[in-house]
Amino acid sequence: MCGRYAASADVDELVEDFEVDEVAEQPPPPSWNVAPTDPVAAVVERRDKQTEEVRRKLVQVRWGLVPSWSKNPGGGARMINARAETVAEKPAFRKAFAARRCLIPADGYYEWYAEEPPAGEGKRGFKPVKQPWFIHRTDGERLVMAGIYEFWRDDARPADDPEAWLSTCSIITTSATDSLGHLHDRMPMVIAREAWADWLDPGLTDPARAVELLAVTEAERLGAYPVSKAVGNVRNNSPELVRPLAEGAGE
């Protein structure tokens, strides 16, 4: 799964890298400890209902998808990830996958690895320590995670009330590559740069075609190293969280 990630790019970097036409909603500030239900930056394409023009926008969405038919937004934290194997069919995700796909930029993401007992010792009485690892591209490029987003309306508020609408998202995941499988059995899917336009295209509503655009970052382009356990506390948020322990990130 992907349950915590880092996203340190500022607005100007994202606008330039993704060739954004409009900053529709000011994205949250850079974060090295993005957690479920946090506001996150996403790149989308939307068609203007009057002009029919498609514009690429930088928006803010909440991490944890709330289906449009939900009675309340409380279950979003359970839907931070959507499995690639079922995203096109699962009722909570299929409408968004067909019509509302997005790009979610990240520096990398965290996984926690439970240490095994020392060789020759049994598991009785052994309390495994969960060590966080930071997974990133070794070439320094940004991870562009495949996402879907949805709109939920609070029927208790007037439709023209901005507070009546909630935008949320999920990150699509798949089975981890062999090199990362020892850390966790799932990993985020990505969208290659040459597929960004097709993935975002609101005119592409065929789920089968959208599935073909999903990709896995090649194992040789991914690296992982242990980081400070401070990342386990969502209140901690600084560049030190993504520094390798060998560089003095501390415990």
UniProtKB/TrEMBL annotation:
EC number: 3.4.-.-
Protein family according to the UniProt entry: Belongs to the SOS response-associated peptidase family.
Provenance organism: Enemella dayhoffiae
Matches recorded under InterPro entries: SRAP (IPR003738), SRAP-like (IPR036590)
SUPFAM superfamilies in UniProt: BB1717-like
Name the UniProt record assigns to this protein: Abasic site processing protein
Keywords assigned: Covalent protein-DNA linkage, DNA damage, DNA-binding, Hydrolase, Lyase, Protease
Pfam families noted in UniProt: SRAP
BP term (GO), one: proteolysis
PANTHER family, per database record: ABASIC SITE PROCESSING PROTEIN HMCES, DC12-RELATED
Gene3D superfamilies: SOS response associated peptidase-like
GO molecular function, one term: single-stranded DNA binding
Highest taxon above the source species: Bacteria
